Amino acid sequence: MKDPILTALRYLAAMLAGYGLIAIGTTLTFEVWLGGIGYHTSTAKTLVLATLGALASGVLGGYVAAWIGAQRPIRHAAAVLVLLLIDTFYVVTSGISSDPLAFDLAASGGLMAAALLGGWLRRRWRRRATTAMAAI
Fold this sequence. Notes:
mainly alpha
């Protein structure tokens, strides 16, 4: 049986690394490359680009969390959702966002789905690599 402390540390590392990549990716996309976004102030093109950047960040964060998780990629990618839920709760309750609630929740839900997709992609890639190695 695995050491429960090492298992917990692996989940924590996966959670922090995945969320950190999502935070860095979305900040770069929203603030640096697009100059700030908002539901009421951004053009449709800017919102589409922001969405694509956020989804790419989510997939990357979920993939890295799954990579750290090794044997349980989806579970480790899902661990990132804990921090995304806390982040979402803060954004919608603190008043820092002037966007409609549905916009903030949809953005958060998209990030969560993208993180899980990243975990699924890692699991799929890992299975293909294992199958290819077994065939050799």
